């Protein structure tokens, strides 16, 4: 029976994984997904090819890890309890704003957009493993509020799209085209609060 790795070896493996993911993101942006070979990524990360292949046997697996890391955190899969539409949407909106504010999120979208004509599977992976699970969290939450009688939502999918769109259209999408686009924490809070108020005004149970 193979012994479990020690805490030290687990930490070293995690540190090397982070180096690989960071190096891959930078090279995908610089060279493109196709030209950034795994060997070159290993060299840039300062790890051996054997170490890289052990964690990521294919370039697609490495890209999946970049997607997962970009969308991870902030308990994105946790659905707030139903009963207070304003409070629940505020939690979801703040989480989304935090995710979109990560520098690696902008990098990820730029990679996907740049490689879309040649590698449409990258966009599908990004959507299915990143955006879709978060979108589903919002949709399921709105369904729960409808069932609780606190929201009048005939089309939860459309309502979730509207809510998230109000946030991303100000906080995120301009940054892809305008390198100097910055949003202050106070402005971020205001954007989320306005999205919540608009959604509650439209879908809150009368």
Automatic annotation (TrEMBL):
Keyword terms: DNA-binding, Transcription, Transcription regulation
Protein's UniProt keywords contain DNA-binding: yes
GO molecular function, one term: DNA-binding transcription factor activity
Pfam assignment, any one: TetR_N
DNA-binding region: 37-56
Organism of derivation: Micromonospora humi
Taxonomic superkingdom: Bacteria
HTH tetR-type domain boundaries: 14-74
GO BP of this protein: negative regulation of DNA-templated transcription
Keyword Transcription part of the UniProt annotation: yes
SUPFAM superfamilies: Homeodomain-like, Tetracyclin repressor-like, C-terminal domain
InterPro entries per record: Homeodomain-like_sf, HTH-type_TetR-like_transc_reg, HTH_TetR, Tet_transcr_reg_TetR-rel_C_sf, TetR_C_Proteobacteria
Protein name per the record: Transcriptional regulator, TetR family
């Amino acid at each position: 029976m193979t012994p479990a790795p020690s805490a030290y070896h687990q930490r070293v493996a995690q540190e090397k994984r982070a180096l690989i993911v960071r190096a891959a993101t930078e090279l995908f942006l610089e060279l493109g997904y196709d030209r950034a070979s795994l060997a070159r990524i290993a060299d840039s990360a300062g790890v051996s090819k054997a170490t890289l292949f052990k964690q990521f046997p294919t370039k697609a697996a490495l890209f999946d890890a970049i997607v997962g890391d970009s969308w991870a955190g902030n308990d994105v899969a946790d659905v707030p309890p139903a009963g207070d539409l304003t409070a629940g949407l505020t939690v979801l909106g703040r989480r989304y704003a935090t995710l979109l504010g990560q520098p690696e999120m902008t990098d990820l979208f730029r990679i996907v957009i740049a490689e879309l004509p040649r590698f449409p599977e990258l966009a599908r992976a990004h959507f299915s493993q990143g955006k879709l699970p978060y979108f589903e969290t919002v949709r399921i939450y709105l369904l729960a509020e409808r069932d609780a009688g606190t929201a009048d939502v005939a089309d939860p999918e459309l309502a979730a799209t509207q809510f998230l769109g109000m946030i991303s259209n100000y906080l995120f999408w301009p940054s892809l085209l305008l390198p100097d686009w910055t949003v202050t924490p106070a402005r971020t809070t205001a954007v989320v609060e306005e999205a919540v108020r608009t959604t509650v005004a439209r879908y809150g149970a009368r």
